[in-house]
Structures are given as C-alpha cells and as structure tokens.
Amino acid sequence: MREIEAEILSRAPENDIGPSLERIRAVMQLAGDPQHAFPTVHLTGTNGKTSTSRMIDTILRELGVTTGRFTSPHLHDLRERIALSGKPIPREKLIAAYEEVRPLVDLVDGRSLESGGRRLNFFETLVAVAYAAFADAPVDAAVVEVGLGGTWDATNVADARVSVITPIDLDHTHLLGDDIASITQEKSGIIKPDGITVSALQADEAAEILRERAEQVGARILVEGTDFGVLTRDVALGGQLVSLRGLAGDYPDLFLPLHGAHQAQNLAVAVAAVEAFVGGGEQPLEHEVLLAACAAMASPGRLEVVRRSPTVVVDAAHNPHGARALVSALDEAFTFTRLVGLLSIVADKDAVGILEILEPVLSEVVVTRNSSHRALDPARLGRLAVEVFGAHRVTVVPNLPDALEQAVTLAEADGLGGGVLATGSVITAGEVRLLLGHDET
Fold first, then answer.
1. Using alpha carbons only, how large is the chain's radius of gyration in Å?
2. What is the CATH number of domain 304-435?
3. Percent of the chain residues past pLDDT 70, beyond the cut
C-alpha cells in the first residue's frame, strides 16, 4: 500500500492540470469504460461539495443503495477519497483496483509522452482507480465530486444521471478564471444531455450561465429557492432542526447534527439530488428514512469539535466564501468568551480576504505552517495578519504542534469559555484533527 501511494503521489499534483480529457478517456476505454457500469451523481461548485456528497451518499445508503463515493482532498488517508458503502476503501480493494489500471495508465503515459504530451497526473490516476473499484465492487450508484472545475476535470468522463452544483464563488482563479462567469462556465461542463441538474442558490450571473448550459444540452435544471429549499431552521443542541421543501414533498423536523445555515442548505440540495436520482423528482422520500439518514450525517473537518476544555474547533474553510459561512455558523452555534485562531493557508489562496473575514470573531491569531509544500510561509502570513489584526494580536509559531499548544494556552488565559479555531485549509484542519487523536473520517 505504501508503495502504491508513493507511486501515485510521485506524479504531477492534482492542481497541475492540462485542459484535456484525452488521457483519462484513453485509460477508461482500455479498461472497458468502468465509469458507465453504474449511474452517477456528479457534483461541482466552490464550497460544500464534500459535505453535500457525504449527505447524498448517506441518504442513498439509508434507502438500501450500495454506494461508491469519490471526494477530495483527504484529511488523513488517501483511501478516504474512494469510499465503498460509506467507508474508506479497504486496502486490499484499492491495491486490486490499482493493479488493474496501472498497466493501462503506463500504456497511455507512453503514448502521450511520445506525441509530446504528459503523463497522467495524481488526480487522473486516482479517478481511474476509483471508477475501476466502483465497477469491481460493484456499486449500485456512485457519488462523485470533481477535483477542480468541471469541463476538464478527470471525473467528467462519467455521464451523470444527476449533476449537482453547490454555491459558486471565487477560488482557484489562476486556473479557472478571475470572475464568477468564467468559473461558472467551467463548472457548467458537468451538466449532461437529458440529465437533471440540481443547483444551490447562485449569484444571478452564475444562475443564468447554468440555465443557458442546461437549455443548450437539453437538461432539466432545478434550483434552490424556486424548486426546493429550506423552510425553517432552528439551532438545537449538537446541531439544528431543519424543515425542507423537496422536489416531491415537504420534510419537517429533520435533526441535522451539523452547524450552520450552509449545512442546512447543503442538506436541501442533497435531498433534492436524491429525489431526482431515484424518482426523477416526482416521488417523495420516506420521512422515516430521511430522519435516520440525517441523524447519521457527519462532515469531518467542517466546524468539527475535536477537543473540550478548551474547545478546539477545526474547519476546512480555505477561501473567503467558506470563511463567511464559518463566521456565521460560529456566531450561531458557539458562545466563546475568547476565540484564538490557529491559521495556516495555502500560498495561492486569498489569505488577506480570509483574514479580514475572520478578524471580527478572533481575539488573536497564532500563525503557523501545515505540512503542505504549498503552505504560505509563516513569516509572510504573519505580516499579512499584522496588517489586519495589529501586531499585538498576532503570534507566529512555525511548527504546527507548537502553534496548537500556544493557541490552547492563549485560549485558557481567561479561564473557562475560551476556544481555538484551526482553519485556513483542509490540510490544517486534518493535521490538527490528527494531533488531537481524530484519525477517522
């Protein structure tokens, strides 16, 4: 298993992309097109993809459907990205799937290099492994999250029965475009002919582009706020009580053990996606089934409490849109007398935008570095933080374990009521989770 991980990770990283599906399509054709062996729910968007994917997966499993789920990135273990029946793929099944596709990947790599092209990157290779594993399992349905964008994402070799678009905002602008319209055009590429598209509430310009794409390819599009949505939402102990209007019926009083209005909206999108998938949006889900599914939902690394006394919360927010959702949920779900931020942000993200959104809710920040080679240098991030917070509210501790200890010490300074928020990237959330003994997802 370690050798396989090393081989996959030795390839170009997932954000090193070439705008082409030629390589992954060639591998899939040589493998017998395993991605067509099962119906797919395909998700894109800027934020909420993984949470919504997990929700869809949970509801389908509660309905008795055998599922495969592909998400990214992972918090701790590469196997988290490829889930079978809600659990990370067993090592032996991952090894078998990799051994199945490796000679095909090598063949396509060779052909591509001979013609002046490139090898499959890390993400393309993992997509090939995932689709092979799902076909081998076999699964009744796959829930597949794009890695980046949509049109040219390697997952897009599947023909999804249902396409899901979570909220679109600015992120990966150096790769997808520097405005909402450009990013939406790229993400709209997962909308397939004769399929059903379920869209979260979007900015007007994004909504119009999605409608135009659906009309062009002959897809039906269903939109939050018009065709489905959240009716009511009340904060509850350990989560929230949500009532939804689905495509085919209303679903009152669902207890969701996750915090924040954004998670209630993710749930509304997930329910609509499942309604569209199993009954074309014409058949309501059994309320008892949905109650059970909601109670079982989890989203590791998303506003997750990983320690008490003081409380340590981890969140994977890594762009301003995610940071705004985080701040709103924090204000609603927690009452800290003193909240210390523990921050490490990847260098190509809008660090200043994230810092400015977090500033009103953080008493002070401890700036550090996670293990990613793409992480912003702590000294540089510290200087940016000083501009936003002032020097008296910023501490730079380059080593993450030491930084966590410092943040906990600062949170405890006023006695009871203090907390730590570790955020800035998925990697930061995952590594703090691991340091505090949470190694499962």
1. 21
2. 3.90.190.20
3. 97
